[in-house]
Write a structure and sequence with these properties.
Layout lengths: L22 H13 L6 H12 L13 E3 L2 H5 L15 E2 L6 E7 L7 E6 L9 E6 L6 E4 L2 H11 L3 H14 L6 H8 L32 H13 L4 H19 L3 H14 L5 H16 L3 H15 L6 E2 L10
Antiparallel strand pairs: 1-3, 2-7, 3-4, 4-5, 5-6
Helix pairs in contact: 1-2, 2-5, 4-5, 8-9, 9-10, 10-11
Length: about 325
């Protein structure tokens, strides 16, 4: 049997195929292939609504709600070339862990300080929630179980009855749950093995019977904050440096014994606390690279390396945009 021909994407149709009934499937396939990970079908519904609401400039279709479509939506709109731009780095804020992918930014300014992301604990799986973050803080907040649920809630808060009804109808078509952030957090907490300083929590494979997969850090959050603060300022004592070395040694031991979540927790917290071009920052890069490799999360492994290098360059803006892919090795 001959291989079916791929249909061409028609930008005049908002990025869909020439057959209107195939648009959603084509968009989803395009995103899955370009990003190397699965997207929920709801993203096609959101894009379709944006194209219907403002066909000439769908990225700004929901500016009345205070949000602008970015990231995957820019790609669908033909604004990003996946051959040259690293899609996972687009709109990556300073404190964004690699589990997040920006889909919305604050529409009130051309230099947004707030954004909303799809969050996936494992890039091989569908997003589990929508989170928000800012430039000023490493803490992130759970906003909704899905993008449609968030936009529906936002429409209700902004008293935009038209969009509220459209998002509710789209959610019904996709079978998307419009539950609150509190309900989502309650369900997620069952899978979280540890809290993290960014408030997103840690989800890794963990065997409760053998207790393999995660172990607690030797330092409390308060102790770690104090230690990294001193190292950032260059005032750490010899005893402090010994303590830092001990944490690194404990991470390596935990990895050898299958507790990969330990290194992920330490690295994530260092990522939140460490100033660029410091020893803790470099250790965060090392520890997280190994953790993601051991957890078989190659997209996170790649993104954390690129992002840490990006943060180390003081001339780079705090929000990454149009990040060029590294040239292939000869």
């Amino acid at each position: 049997m001959a291989e079916p021909k791929k249909r061409k994407i028609d930008p005049s149709n908002g990025g869909g195929t020439t057959e209107a009934g195939d648009r959603l499937g084509a968009w989803l396939t395009t995103l899955n292939e370009a990003y190397g990970m699965p997207f929920p079908a709801e993203i096609g519904r959101v894009w379709a609504l944006a194209c219907e609401e403002k066909s000439k400039d769908p990225l700004t279709a929901f500016d009345s709600l205070g949000v602008r479509l970015v990231g995957p939506f820019e790609f669908l709109h033909g604004k990003l070339d996946s051959a040259s731009v690293h899609l996972h780095m687009q709109w990556r804020f300073k404190f964004d862990p690699p589990e997040t992918l920006t889909v919305l930014t604050d529409s009130s300014t051309n230099r947004p300080s707030k954004h909303w992301c799809y969050h996936r604990d494992d890039p091989a799986k569908l997003p589990s929630m929508i989170t928000s973050g800012t430039l000023e803080s490493y803490t992130h907040h759970l906003e909704a179980p899905s993008l449609l649920a968030f936009l529906w809630q936002l429409s209700a808060a902004k008293k935009n009855a038209k969009l509220e009804a459209l998002f509710a109808e789209a959610a019904k078509k996709e079978g998307v749950n419009l539950s609150s952030a509190a309900a989502t957090k309650k369900a997620r907490d069952k899978a979280v093995v540890a809290t993290t300083m960014n408030r997103l929590g840690l989800v890794v494979p963990y065997n409760k019977e053998t207790e393999v997969g995660y172990r607690e850090c030797a330092l409390s959050d308060a102790e770690m904050k104090s230690l990294i603060s001193k190292m950032n300022a260059g005032t750490a004592s010899d005893a402090d440096l010994d303590s830092f070395d001990d944490v690194s040694r404990f991470v390596d031991i935990a990895n050898d014994e299958g507790d990969y979540g330990h290194g992920l927790e330490v690295g994530t917290n260092y990522f939140c606390l460490a100033k660029p071009n410091t020893r803790p920052h470099n250790e965060a890069k090392r520890v997280l690279k190994v953790a993601y490799m051991l957890l078989s999360r190659p997209i996170c492994e790649e993104v954390i390396q690129l992002h840490m290098d990006y943060r180390n360059n003081p001339s780079n803006p705090p929000v990454c945009r149009n990040y060029k892919k590294p040239a292939p090795s000869p």
